[in-house]
Design brief:
27 strands, 4-stranded mixed β-sheet, alpha+beta, 4-stranded antiparallel β-sheet, about 15% strand
């Protein structure tokens, strides 16, 4: 079994012996927790996982009990060779994942009122990868752009998409309308990069900054065309297993001061891939089963990296060999897993490969800060002050320097404590745009900006989730045990773990949350459903390319070409009799959608599921009444008025739905970092300091539903599975 190596900033600080759950729980008077049986006898609760001290074994057992149906369906889907049938089977697997109740969808990015100086669609709107965070081509005005002009540009983009003419047209349109264009762009960010090595991290806060420092082989442009970047051209073998790229000559690696340190060569992509697999920072699962011998190298069965399917044939010829034809392979190239790395610079920073790799060595300096990486992209990071600013300056040695639109990119930190800050900074010109929350919408109306400049921002394919910890073992932050500290008794801890392992109980919680009101705290009442999502993979992410027949609960069902993924997911959920709605066939003006409505919140359904949970839990000795409730905990950022309001909606919804049978304690995190360290910054499930957590989410890395579902694989392969307390 492979072991996930530490890749973020936390150190595993709990002995295995402390992970064993309590064998039985006690009542307030110190007696055993018992429940009356049919004839007045008492049922004593005994933890079914008691005595399993090995964390991997414990995780495997809990995972199989809770997500076994999902995993079996998903493995069958991945074995299918017909792409459309595979997608249909994946939708069935995701239905099982949603039904498990281990996570509740909350929202996507966007769907809020905003004001901006940035022309629409001048960064790619491709839904996957990190190319949408490459900002060198954005077009920015010195003035806010009116909503009417934005609408005109978006309409023209739809007309010109794929022609290569949109950028020139936008510049002419804006200047013709009297706008002045500039070569600087300033935005906000809310979490400092913690790891400056893009190949050793899968945290969005790291990769979204670092993507501006390197180029990939291919990149999506503002018209969503996949265009050559460091690859001038490529060919694919007839069997679809071999991709050969010709690397652009004359490209330079520079340090943070812009000094040339090496030429970019094909071998830098080989070095990058080996380092990524060595570092095991959460990206490696992306190429498992894709690139020849990647899995075997990760497991240690192959130690000679020359046997892995990435090779530099010469200085400017790079070849990837795949295990099988992979239709989405080219869509993967826009993500950091395929980033190049200067082998010589890495080694000069103490970096080594294979068995010699040791990021904890005193001599290892690579990726510790912006001065310890090499750059081959449009920018170098010339200034970084934690919790303040990141300044990206144009790389004078960049191969395409003459064609970038932004010479200085500045990120300003905003922890969200002041709900007016982004709006005020946008007005004053400190930043070039801001989303409007329920408070600043009113200000924009009062100050005359709303009617002319506000627009509803587009949503993307990011899925933010509220996660349920089914195996809580940490009751204070792993990074600092004095932060975000639980107040639960041992009895309450054990009862909560037992309840959260019951599927009906988890679904009851999910159905009880008024997600619209929760979302309204951020975006306002009139837009509360605009960014609301109902599934992990967006329902329109893929559509069948041909008719396929699959089995749903033993009955053959045919879905015609053009059927969206979400419709198939809903068919399985309906067949299972679970009362959740993940797909609206009439949504998005008849196209169909899994977003823009609340298909989960229903108090009647919540109560029905809770009654089923109470009955099942009673048989194992867990009594749930208003006098003896299940007490859960959720950390929240108390320094933020917005997050405080959102958390209180969560609490009020849960407690009101069940008549006191469930109590939710909100545990204050005084800083945003304390809040993130409760879960978002953790590496392993046993570090998760919560029962419920509404911070994390996932954005797609490539254009296949597998990019979402792989995150819930067992045995440390799935990056997000740690959010539910295992692996």
């Amino acid at each position: 079994m492979s072991k996930k190596i530490l890749s973020l900033i936390l150190v595993l600080c709990m002995a295995l012996s402390s992970m064993a759950l309590l064998v039985s729980c006690t009542t307030g008077d110190g007696g055993e927790d018992t429940t009356a049986g049919e004839e007045g006898t008492k049922v004593v609760y005994t933890d079914p996982y008691a005595g399993i001290e090995d964390y991997d074994e414990l995780s495997a057992k809990i995972y199989d009990d809770i997500l076994g149906d999902f995993y079996a369906a998903y493995e069958a889907a991945k074995a299918e060779t017909n792409e459309s049938k595979k997608w249909a089977m994946m939708a069935i697997a995701e239905a099982k994942l949603m039904e498990s109740g281990v996570m509740m969808p909350t929202s996507s990015n966007g769907g809020n009122y905003a004001i901006t100086r940035v022309a629409p669609n001048t960064a790619t709107s491709t839904l996957w990868g990190n190319d949408s965070y490459r900002y060198h081509d954005v077009i920015v005005a010195t003035e806010f752009i009116t909503a009417a002009d934005r609408a005109a540009m978006k309409a023209k983009w739809a007309e010109l998409k794929g022609t290569g003419e949109y950028e020139e047209w936008v510049e002419a349109y804006l200047t013709g309308k009297g706008y002045t264009l500039k070569n600087t762009y300033s935005i906000v960010y809310n979490s400092d990069p913690k790891n400056w090595d893009v190949l050793a991290t899968s945290r969005a806060a790291d990769s979204e900054a670092l993507v501006n420092t390197y180029d990939g082989l291919m990149e999506y442009d503002m018209e969503n065309r996949l265009m050559p970047a460091l690859a001038e051209s490529y060919t694919v073998s007839e069997d679809g297993k071999t991709y050969t790229f010709k690397i652009r000559q004359g490209v330079k690696w520079v340090d943070s001061q812009g000094r040339v340190v090496a030429d970019v060569k094909a071998d830098d992509f080989v070095a990058g891939m080996q380092h990524m697999l060595d570092a095991a920072g959460g990206l490696e699962y992306l190429v498992q089963g894709i690139i020849v011998n990647a899995t075997e190298y990760i497991k240690g069965d192959v130690t000679d990296f020359a046997q892995v399917g990435v090779k530099a044939v010469d200085d400017y010829t790079l070849v990837y060999t795949l295990e099988q034809p992979t239709t989405f392979f080219m869509t993967m190239l826009g993500y950091g897993v395929f980033a190049p790395m200067s082998r010589t610079f890495y080694e000069s920073m103490g970096g080594q490969f294979g068995a010699d790799y040791n990021a904890a060595a005193e001599t290892y300096k690579y990726g510790k800060g912006p001065d310890s990486i090499a750059y081959c992209g449009p920018y170098t990071i010339t200034s970084f002050t934690a919790g303040n600013t990141i300044v990206f300056s144009a790389n004078e040695s960049y191969w395409d320097a003459a064609n970038i639109n932004i010479n200085t990119l500045t990120w300003f930190f905003n922890d969200g404590e002041d709900v007016k800050k982004s709006y005020n900074d946008a007005k004053s010109g400190v930043i070039d745009g801001a989303g409007l929350n329920s408070t600043t919408v009113l200000l924009a109306k009062e100050e005359g900006l709303y009617d002319t400049y506000s627009y509803v921002s587009s949503t993307d394919a990011t899925s933010f989730m509220s996660f349920v910890n089914v195996n809580r073992a940490m009751y204070a932050n792993a990074a600092d045990d004095k932060k975000v500290v639980s107040t639960l008794t041992a009895d309450e801890q054990t009862r909560a773990n037992a309840a959260l392992r019951n599927e009906h109980f988890r679904r009851a919680l999910a159905f009880a949350i008024d997600r619209g009101t929760y979302n309204a705290q951020s975006v306002g009442e009139d837009l509360k459903y605009a960014s609301l999502i109902n599934s992990y993979t967006p329902g329109t992410f893929v559509a069948l390319k041909e008719d396929v027949t699959v089995e749903i609960n033993g009955t053959a069902k045919t879905f015609t070409a053009g059927t969206y993924y979400g419709a198939i997911m809903q068919a399985q959920i309906d067949a299972d009799g679970v009362k959740m709605k993940v797909w609206d066939p009439n949504g998005d003006d008849g196209i169909g959608s899994s977003a823009g409505f609340d298909g989960w919140y229903n108090v009647d359904n919540a109560v029905e599921e809770m009654e089923a949970a109470i009955a099942e839990l009673a048989t194992i000795g867990i009594e749930i009444t208003a006098e003896n409730p299940i007490v859960l905990e959720m950390p929240y950022y108390s320094g933020s008025e917005l997050r405080t309001n959102m958390s209180n909606v969560y609490k009020q919804s849960l407690e009101a739905a069940f008549g006191g049978k469930v109590k939710l304690n909100l545990v204050a995190a005084e800083t945003s970092d304390d809040w993130y360290y409760a879960g978002y910054y953790t590496d392993f499930g046993n570090e998760a300091n919560y029962h419920l957590y509404d911070v994390s989410g996932w954005g797609p890395d490539y254009g296949d539903p597998q990019t979402y579902l792989d995150t819930f694989l067992p045995e440390y392969a799935g990056y997000m599975v740690k959010c539910i307390g295992v692996y």
